[in-house]
Amino acid sequence: xxxxxxxxxxxxxxxxxxxxxxxxxxxxxxxxxxxxxxxxxxxxxxxxxxxxxxxxxxxxxxxxxxxxxxxxxxxxxxxxxxxxxxxxxxxxxxxxxxxxxxxxxxxxxxxxxxxxxxxxxxxxxxxxxxxxxxxxxxxxxxxxxxxxxxxxxxxxxxxxxxxxxxxxxxxxxxxxxxxxxxxxxxxxxxxxxxxxxxxxxxxxxxxxxxxxxxxxxxxxxxxxxxxxxxxxxxxxxxxxxxxxxxxxxxxxxxxxxxxxxxxxxxxxxxxxxxxxxxxxxxxxxxxxxxxxxxxxxxxxxxxxxxxxxxxxxxxxx
Amino acid sequence: xxxxxxxxxxxxxxxxxxxxxxxxxxxxxxxxxxxxxxxxxxxxxxxxxxxxxxxxxxxxxxxxxxxxxxxxxxxxxxxxxxxxxxxxxxxxxxxxxxxxxxxxxxxxxxxxxxxxxxxxxxxxxxxxxxxxxxxxxxxxxxxxxxxxxxxxxxxxxxxxxxxxxxxxxxxxxxxxxxxxxxxxxxxxxxxxxxxxxxxxxxxxxxxxxxxxxxxxxxxxxxxxxxxxxxxxxxxxxxx
Lengths: 317, 239
Ligand SMILES: Nc1ncnc2c1ncn2[C@@H]1O[C@H](COP(=O)(O)OP(=O)(O)O)[C@@H](O)[C@H]1O
Ligand SMILES: [Mg+2]
What we know:
The complex is a heterodimer of chains A (317) and B (239). Chain A is mainly alpha-helical and 317 residues long. Chain A has a domain at 32-236. Chain A is 82% helix and 1% strand. Chain A is built from 16 helices and two strands. Chain B has one domain (29-51, 70-207, 220-237): Rossmann fold. Chain B has 239 residues and is of the alpha/beta class. Chain A binds chain B through residues 177, 180-181, 183-184, 187-188, 190-199, and chain B through 50, 52, 71-73, 76-77, 81-82, 84, 88-93, 97, 100-102, 104-107, 113, 152-153, 155-156. Bound molecules: adenosine-5'-diphosphate and magnesium ion. Magnesium ion is lined by residues 42-43, 85 of chain B.
């Protein structure tokens, strides 16, 4: 038992496990079916949205519902620039446009606190959607756009790359003094400011950083959907699902939101194809149960069992 | 030389003048007390100094430089730290991290991780919390939370420390300890401006005392002068 406990305290082993999982994932197109590649692409997309949402929410407590807005901005950036730019620069452009929009929006809204911030970010999705609709209909005279199609394996590779960069970023952020400062903002903004933290800058920058990954994910996913219009691109489900997935998995550990997103996204894909009519219902039930009985998410629950098991083991030995 | 000066500092909340045309100064290495009945405007005056709110009108200077219009984090990095009347520790963070935050962000010069860790250890030792490094701040008693606020403020390496009611709610022994703490902070060369209701404490440690009443400065002087001032006695008896 001691060995197992030691193992879980050893970050080096975590690195090793992550690396092995990553190699298995990266080589998936060599041994997996086309269906598996597409399924896992969809799951990683949700993981990216969930982790980047968590990156801002978990320390600060600011609940943003703008995920769909930044994701949609990425989609439209690809729809517009996809033909002029090579794939990778277009994906990065999707992230950058979202980053810049988030900087501007953040500078305006992060003075708002609590539910006002949440409602504003939610309104942002609708606002951008309708601005875009208006623009497309009245100025460019289009309703939707075709996006350059990419090969499934390429899409998979790019989305995996975005995921890896995101996880490294989140890992470094959490460990850095800025991670500490973000948590202090979540605890007491006023005290943080009086201890020398540039609260507004840090909040706005982290918000924009999370938006970068949402935008990049949107840009690459657009190449899978071939045709997008503002309704598809700015779907509010993309704001809600990451929140639910993060709650489901928990947020205390680096990997908790990943677990939540993977399980949830897998269930979602299965339910959507098999029981589309029950999807939202089952979804709702799972959520209510998660909120009521899993205050620290699934990961929190498993860790509790794990620690209880260890204690009993110690008593017995 | 005055490290801190205020001229005509005023702050209205709606029609109420919480602070009204107050001139004040704090000299280098002094311990200055700020007293007055509840609602007199003491905390509001501290808020204008630490830039939580801007005086309107009024000018505040720190080491000769105008600080009105700056942000709280800028004022902190210039060398003014504060504690809060209603304790604002980071409840879900260990004591040690509460202090480290101050040394990471509040100092004028950047500090390495190792330096800040050493600094935090020393400061926790200084305020008597070294045994509680890993305790969550929210699990501390009120006295210890107040000590933590002092350590956290000191971690920003201030030249001027604003202390808002450190001793409220403490028993006699704790008050005595707090008084010793205040004097030993001054012995480190840090100037102190403190709000306090515990008269024994304020009379014991302050070089000079200012009295606010309804936002107006009504008296100022040595502890003896203030204690025997007719106006001050009337204000306190009239309460
Ligand atoms: N943020 C605020 N908004 C409105 N009124 C305030 C605010 N802060 C303080 N006041 C009012 O200003 C007056 C002075 O308050 P305060 O400075 O806290 O007094 P003290 O610290 O001397 O007890 C009080 O009447 C209080 O109600
Ligand atoms: Mg007060």
